[in-house]
Amino acid sequence: MMLRMGSPAPSIKVEDWLRGEPLADFQPGKVYIVEFWATWCELCAAEMLELMRLEEKYKDSGLDVVGIAADEDAPTAVEARTKLDTWLAEKCPDLNHRIAFDYTGEMKKLWREPGFCVGIPTSFVVDRDGCIAFIGHPSQLGEVLPKVFNGSWRTSNKAKAADQERIATSEPLALEQTLKKPIDDRFWAAVKLEDWKTALWAIEEGIASMPDDLNFRLAHAHLLLHKIQDMWTGLPVMRQLVRDAIDKNAEDWMVSTLDQLFHPANDHSRLPPAERFAMGKELSEHILALNPPQGDSRKFRSYPAVARYYHENGNNDRAIELVELALTSLDGPEPIPAELKEQHLPDLLQALAKYRGAKACCGALFAAHSFPKVPKRGRPRKKDKKG
After folding, report:
1. Which pTM does this prediction carry?
2. C-alpha distances in angstroms, 3 versus 115, 132, 144, 279?
3. Residue 371 class from Cβ within 10 Å (0-12 exposed, 13-18 middle, 19+ buried)?
4. SS3 99
5. 238: exposed, middle or buried (Cβ count in 10 Å: 0-12, 13-18, 19+)
6. φ, ψ for residue 19 (rounded to 5)?
7. CA–CA gap between residue 107 and residue 260 (Å, rounded)
């Protein structure tokens, strides 16, 4: 059954409550925020602080915030719960709302799948009548909550139009996720066994049905070039990926493709050097044209990949310049969540230290050259991630 504005709120069925008292039923006359989040989500920590503020602001009006951790990336429920407890103790020691843990997928079936929710963080607002009043990103709660409390939200034309637009946009994405899930499951089972041929068959099946899925395309190139090391088949796949990334003029496609060619966690020794650098040059120039150095747009996601190309190509000064611009963009005109800044800052300082051959500092943080982290790009995601 579809879950939309006006639908009766489903029940909450979780394995355990990590913070606060268990919630058996939604009480008439109260308003609830049911928030889906995870420790790996870049924006979730910042949104968690905002939820704490809302809980404090509206607690006398009857607001109850319930965080649902149903997407932890861990092999077992015990490991997932341990990770959650550690994260909460470190990041949110003064948490003022309930946190529930679900590893079974029951909350996804009851809430997110019927609501066509394809990513996190996602907020469900349950109004005083026990009905869904809002489904969407928590950044919209500041506008929505006062109208939910005074009873005007669900009857407003704006709310009805927003719910219709959400369904029209999210339903195709949710269907795509459903189609991808069995392919992802087979892929990850094969990866766990290091059965690269079976993993390749799963990815090729995915590309046949969804040829424009970036994660499938990256995994295809990664398996052929870096796992199976079949250059005869892998190079044409890589060439086509480069062409498609440039034709789409999409920064995420181009940066992810450049990572396949220059991220130090990958072994590039079998790739023809001249062709590898030619593809890297073309991708880097298109990324810089799309996101130019003189602009104010965010550079901390894309410029490190371009800097790696210039560093390997012998232009170390250019690599340093690009990393410095990426660092500057962390404090650009558009504010970014502190958690996102904390995530990118150490890697940028590490890159800067490597290219300078010395320590790099930013405030109280400093780094010296050491081994790089394994890239997260180049394979299908285990979870549906957003933000």
Report:
1. 0.63
2. 5, 8, 18, 46
3. exposed
4. strand
5. buried
6. -140, 140
7. 36
Question: Angle CA(279)–CA(208)–CA(259) in degrees, nearest 5?
Answer: 25
Cβ contact 32:75 at 8 Å? no
Residue 31, classed as helix, strand or coil, is strand
Contact (CB, 8 A) for 280 and 258:
yes
pLDDT tens-digit series, residues 35-55: 999 988 877 877 888 899 999
pLDDT in tens, 328-350: 988 877 767 676 787 788 889 99
Token representation of residue 257: 């493709």
Contact 343, 40 (CB under 8 A): no
- For residue 10, give the amino acid letter: P
φ, ψ (nearest 5 deg) of residue 323: -65, -40
Sheet of 31-37, strand order:
16-19, 98-101, 63-69, 31-37, 122-126, 132-136
Instruction: Give the pLDDT mean for 316-337.
Output: 87
HSE-up (13 A, CA, CB side) for residue 91:
21
Taking CA 16 as the corner, what is the angle to CA 13 and CA 18, rounded to the nearest 5 degrees?
Answer: 125
Q: Token digits for 80?
A: 């997932």
Residue 31 to residues 61, 71, 120: CA-CA distances in angstroms?
8, 24, 21
Q: Which two tokens stand for residue 157?
A: 């034309």
Greatest alpha-carbon pair distance for the chain in Å reads: 69
Task: Name the amino acid, one letter, at 320.
Answer: I
Distance from C-alpha of 214 to C-alpha of 303, rounded to nearest angstrom: 20
- 62-85 pLDDT, tens digit per residue, is 999 999 999 988 888 999 999 999
Helix, strand, coil percent content, the chain, rounded in steps of 5: 55, 10, 35
Distances (CA, A) of 58 to 20, 54, 185: 17, 6, 42
Helix (H) or strand (E) holding 122, with range, is: strand 122-126
Task: Compute the average pLDDT of residues 231-247.
Answer: 96
Tokens linked to 329: 């963009």
Q: Rounded distance, CA 32 to CA 128, Å?
A: 8
Encoding tokens for residue 13? Answer: 């069925």
